[in-house]
């Protein structure tokens, strides 16, 4: 052993005596599990030293980056086989690969991954309740499990030369020459540094090899690995936050008795004492008990005849909801490991016993494969299962696992164990050197097929949104994540597959982003009422005096919604460059010919000059718009309250707006909106001499002067679109979360309808994004000192940009296909996407039709969620549009399911700094959230009808209690059967009205406030 302290003869004698009795206790009396612990101390942040001087480290096998077809799986297996073969060539590197599944700490893990952070943020941003978060934790705990996938790497000294061993011995003797005796503590000195570089080189190369094979593995710290070891032994006595005391940690040392020559009190407690908090009780030869947990460990006797991927075993055992741990220990094959059995079998050949035939057959097969160039390892497999109910349950679970192993390629298990404690300890990866399972030769390629290499992996350890795999593995995700260079997401899904619900879930998770202390900006263009539920949910969580921060509006083409597209940001005389492009696009659209989607030649130039002149005139004191008392009462009253005294004889609206700004008046924008140009102002400006001279002779194809044509079209637009006919009357000032529903203003088909759709999509974009499409490159455009009050707009917006940088900002467009095929609309989408990328804004586009998303946006998208496959033609379009790999095409064709109470299935792609992640995942939410965001026609109708009578909160509470699946579909089906009706696809008013009335009766007779 190459770690020691200086000892006297009596020390050595006492130590030898103590060791002798420990051996008697451990191996004869079999009393303590601690004696099976081979770990001695930590060498560095990632490596433990064993009692035989070998080095041990553990990787957390996060899983695969993408879903795999059989061909891709075979390629991954081949790459791992090649890597492992190289590491085991010298015989000094061995591996243990362990997969553990349990539900004991699932809820605790969800709290660590999501719940605690989400509640903390909810409290910071002012939410009154965390009930939605609590519900999400509970519902995910019902569908998920905790799994631990560890690869343990052990480097032994077998490859050291005799000279190196002698040098190592001399080094350790020198290091330990003056070290005090510490028999009951971790060793302080050792010679591991002499050969540590070999171990670390293996770890570094192994990580690269796995990454090349498409599998993410992370090297665990010794503290993390020790937690897994202790949790595997005694989960009931191990909190998620538990960490061991290791060399280099802060630690409160124990008092030393006077005259004691043993200084163990000044050392770190032995690992065996920390990793084994309670003793185990042997119940029978096959079962044991630790605390209130009954354990049934066993090992594999015969390896599979036909190896199958680990995923097939997991699918079969997951249905049984059984906790288990499956551990593979393998190292370079030694021909001696089977030769003695072959010799014995030959001697006993006269006895007709199955084992003799199996051994001889195995040796013959081994020889044949080796002759063909195959590589072998010596493989041991240990299995454990446990129950917190009874010993009988543990035994039944063992029987089920044994049967599942038999069907998994024909694995046979040992029927009786000699010592269940030793077998159980053997199943804990890297804890003990000794193994109880039979050491069997197995082809390396087939060994890799048995390993849990295809588990889906998330790059996020925590996240404000948690998804899950079909089997129940937690899959944290983080919108607006630093793991991405920018944020552009596309959501695609046929009607009825949860597209709008996906958007609502993603938006809510953005509000809970762990880095933010105030409400995020979320602006959404919607077509229909699907976003209304999300807005109402947020409003219900905010204090009454902050409910204005979340607003839903169903836009109407009326003067009540009148909005001036030429409004500027507070204090700014001119629009920003981003705003200017939007204004120009809108005016060009208004000036389109009746029979074309393309403007006449010269239109862009005229519109640009018209805009420039308008802002020049309204910002110049010689031509600015004069303040008119009596026009806006709120402004007049505010000026009186603030004792406004004009600096000049002539007062302009800009003077009033600036005065109100420096006095922090909430009515500042009311004044500024009178100071800027509007469309009527532009119409009047078309006869300005500067413009008529500049564009003299420029006409339409019909011979009409272009300025007269534009004036006529803009005048006509004011009649056709009252919403654009003057100065802003409708203000959203102060709101952070806004959804504009365009359903009433984007209907119909044909050129006129397309033009109107473009106008309203562009208008909505302008309204929703003007206050956060800001970035540092725009600062030089802004004046440092202007107006009578010397306002420094550049300084104001420099601070605002820094504030916005600290916040999540999202712009969403739902039902993008409603504007699909309209050139101007698609151009606007592309511009918005590019501006968003430049300004650090999260863009989300959702549609039913894959063709509605421009190719340029698809190429940039670094997050994609596809819900439902639709028709074969739609699958083909998806594959071509997103250039999906064959494995993802297979998922789309065969594995997509309609949303149910267990969740909505989606195919997800995340392009991150660490690589691309592609997996099928399930979004599962609780009934409280689902009822708020549900956009199914019948569900929405019932919710809104009840809300009108009872109020939104009480209506939602009743629906959650009576229909926990989040929909009335089951109740509708029950009523249909009672009436002898068939589902016809139409809105069944009589049935839904009956459900409404039934719930109103329930409210009157049975409802009790929660």
UniProtKB/TrEMBL annotation:
It comes from Paraglaciecola mesophila. Keywords: Plasmid. This is Type IV secretion protein IcmB. InterPro entries: P-loop_NTPase. Gene3D superfamilies: P-loop containing nucleotide triphosphate hydrolases.
């Amino acid at each position: 052993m190459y770690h020691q302290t200086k000892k006297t003869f009596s020390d050595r004698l006492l130590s030898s005596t103590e060791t002798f009795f420990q051996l008697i206790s451990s191996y004869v009396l079999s009393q303590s599990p601690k004696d099976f612990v081979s770990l001695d101390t930590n060498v560095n942040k990632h490596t433990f030293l064993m009692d035989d001087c070998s080095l041990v480290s553990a990787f957390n096998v996060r899983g695969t980056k993408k879903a795999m077809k059989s061909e891709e799986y075979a390629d991954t297996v081949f790459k791992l086989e090649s890597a492992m073969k190289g590491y085991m060539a010298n015989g000094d590197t061995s591996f243990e690969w362990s997969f553990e599944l349990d539900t004991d700490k699932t809820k605790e893990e969800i709290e660590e991954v999501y719940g605690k952070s989400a509640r903390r943020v909810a409290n910071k941003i002012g939410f009154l309740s965390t009930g939605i978060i609590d519900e999400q934790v509970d519902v995910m705990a019902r569908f998920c499990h905790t799994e631990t996938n560890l690869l343990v790497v052990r480097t032994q000294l077998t490859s050291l030369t005799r000279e190196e061993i002698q040098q190592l011995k001399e080094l350790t003797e020198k290091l330990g020459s003056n070290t005090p005796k510490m028999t009951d503590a971790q060793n302080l000195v050792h010679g591991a540094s002499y050969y540590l570089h070999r171990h670390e080189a293996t770890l570094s190369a192994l990580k690269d090899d796995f990454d090349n094979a498409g599998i993410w593995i992370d090297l665990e710290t010794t503290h993390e690995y020790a937690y897994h070891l202790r949790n595997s032994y005694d989960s009931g006595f191990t909190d998620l936050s538990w960490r061991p005391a290791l060399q280099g940690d802060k630690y409160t040392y124990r008092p030393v008795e006077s005259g004691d020559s043993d200084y163990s009190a000044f050392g770190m407690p032995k690992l065996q004492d920390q990793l084994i908090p309670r003793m185990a009780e042997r119940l029978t030869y096959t079962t044991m008990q630790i605390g209130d947990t009954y354990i049934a460990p066993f090992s594999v006797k015969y390896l599979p005849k036909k190896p199958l991927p680990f995923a097939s075993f997991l699918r079969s055992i997951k249905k049984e909801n059984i906790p288990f741990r499956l551990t593979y220990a393998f190292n370079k094959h030694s021909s001696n490991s089977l030769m003695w059995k072959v010799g014995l079998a030959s001697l006993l050949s006269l006895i007709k016993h199955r084992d003799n035939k199996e051994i001889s057959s195995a040796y013959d097969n081994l020889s044949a494969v080796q002759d063909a160039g195959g590589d072998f390892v010596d493989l041991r497999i240990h299995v454990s299962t446990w129950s917190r109910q009874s010993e009988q349950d543990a035994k039944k679970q063992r029987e089920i696992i044994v049967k599942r192993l038999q069907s998994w390629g024909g694995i046979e298990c040992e029927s009786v164990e000699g010592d269940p404690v030793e077998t159980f300890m053997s199943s804990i990866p890297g804890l003990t050197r000794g193994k109880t399972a039979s050491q069997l030769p197995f082809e390396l390629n087939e060994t890799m097929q048995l390993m849990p290499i295809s588990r889906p992996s998330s790059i996020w350890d925590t996240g404000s949104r948690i998804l899950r795999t079909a089997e129940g593995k937690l899959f944290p995700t983080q919108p607006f994540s630093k793991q991405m260079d920018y944020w552009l997401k596309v959501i695609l899904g046929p009607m009825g597959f949860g597209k709008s619900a996906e958007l609502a879930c993603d938006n809510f998770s953005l509000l809970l982003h762990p880095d933010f202390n105030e409400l995020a900006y979320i602006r959404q263009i919607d077509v229909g009422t699907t976003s209304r539920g999300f807005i109402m949910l947020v409003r219900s969580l905010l204090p009454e005096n902050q409910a204005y921060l979340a607003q839903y509006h169903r836009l109407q083409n009326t003067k009540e919604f009148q909005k001036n597209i030429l409004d500027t940001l507070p204090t700014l005389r001119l629009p920003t460059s981003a705003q200017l492009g939007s204004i120009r696009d809108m005016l060009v659209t208004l000036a389109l010919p009746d029979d074309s989607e393309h403007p006449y030649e010269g239109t862009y130039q005229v519109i640009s000059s018209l805009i420039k002149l308008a802002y020049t005139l309204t910002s110049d004191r010689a031509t600015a718009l004069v303040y008119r008392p009596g026009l806006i009462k709120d402004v007049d009253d505010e000026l009186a309250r603030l004792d406004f005294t004009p600096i000049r004889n002539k007062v302009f609206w800009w003077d009033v707006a600036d005065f109100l700004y420096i006095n922090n008046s909430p009515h500042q924008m009311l004044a500024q909106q009178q100071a800027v140009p509007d469309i009527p102002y532009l119409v009047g400006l078309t006869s300005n001499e500067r413009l008529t001279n500049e564009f003299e002779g420029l006409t339409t194809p019909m011979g009409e002067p272009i300025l007269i044509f534009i004036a006529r079209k803009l005048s006509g637009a004011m009649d056709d679109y009252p919403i654009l006919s003057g100065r802003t009357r409708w203000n959203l000032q102060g709101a952070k979360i806004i959804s504009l529903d365009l359903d009433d203003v984007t209907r119909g088909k044909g050129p006129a309808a397309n033009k109107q759709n473009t106008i309203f999509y562009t208008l909505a974009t302008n309204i929703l994004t003007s206050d956060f499409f800001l970035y540092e490159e725009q600062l030089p455009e802004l004046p440092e000192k202007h107006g009578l009050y010397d306002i420094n707009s550049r300084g104001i917006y420099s601070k605002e940009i820094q504030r916005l940088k600290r916040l999540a900002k999202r712009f969403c467009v739902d039902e993008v296909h409603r504007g699909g095929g309209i050139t101007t609309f698609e151009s606007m989408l592309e511009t918005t996407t590019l501006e968003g990328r430049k300004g650090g804004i999260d863009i989300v586009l959702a549609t039913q039709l894959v063709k509605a998303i421009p190719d340029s946006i698809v190429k940039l998208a670094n997050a994609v969620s596809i819900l439902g496959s639709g028709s074969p033609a739609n699958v083909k379009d998806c594959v071509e549009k997103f250039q999906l790999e064959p494995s993802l095409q297979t998922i789309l064709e065969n594995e997509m399911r309609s949303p149910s109470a267990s969740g909505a299935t989606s195919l997800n792609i995340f392009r991150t700094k660490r690589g691309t992640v592609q997996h099928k995942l399930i979004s599962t939410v609780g009934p409280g959230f689902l009822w708020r965001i549900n956009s199914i026609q019948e569900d929405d109708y019932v919710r809104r009808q009840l809300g009108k009578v009872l109020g939104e909160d009480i209506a939602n509470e009743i629906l959650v209690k009576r229909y926990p699946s989040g929909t009335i579909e089951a109740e509708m089906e029950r009523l249909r059967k009672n009436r002898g009706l068939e589902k016809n696809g139409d809105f069944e008013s009589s049935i839904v009205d009956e459900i409404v009335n039934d719930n109103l009766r329930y409210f009157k007779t049975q409802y009790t406030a929660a």
